[in-house]
Design goal:
single chain, alpha+beta, 2 domains, elongated, binds zinc ion
């Protein structure tokens, strides 16, 4: 009988070992510039984000979601948008947990996280507009 091994997603399990002295060459137009200070992972090759667009931890987005929840609660009292129900909140959190963007911050940009967060919220609450979500992301 054949032995069966469960497939493991190694990509998402990379612990990222970057050699801080190994810098990546930066291309500017056709010219190779001096080495840019961007350490990268020696295992998977992902470039570490050390720029100003730093990613946030999952907790930050859970906080934002709670603020949106309170906002929608006020809205519903005023007869506006319905409040965020527990099931919607749970689904949004669950989806964030399955997204590498919120779990692996090594090479992630904050802007990409915000875009994904907005996309997930609107998947369950298409009535909540971009500017309403952005307000709480600032
Ligand atoms: Zn890695």
């Amino acid at each position: 009988m054949e032995e069966y091994k469960e497939e493991v997603d190694h990509e998402s399990l990379c612990e990222h070992a970057s050699n801080e002295s190994d810098w990546l060459a930066l291309l500017y137009g056709r010219n190779k510039m001096t080495l840019a200070p961007h350490p990268f992972c020696e295992i998977c090759g992902l470039v570490r984000n050390i720029g100003p667009d730093r990613p946030r931890k999952m907790g930050f987005f859970i906080d934002v979601l709670s603020k949106i929840e309170r906002y929608l609660e006020e809205e519903s009292k005023k007869g506006g948008k319905p409040k965020l129900i527990e099931a919607q909140k749970r689904l949004i959190v669950k989806e964030m947990q399955s997204e590498e963007l919120f779990q692996d911050l090594y090479g992630t940009l904050a802007s990409a996280q915000k875009e994904k967060f907005t996309e997930i919220v609107q998947k369950y609450r298409p009535d909540v507009e971009n500017h309403e979500i952005e307000y709480y992301l600032e």
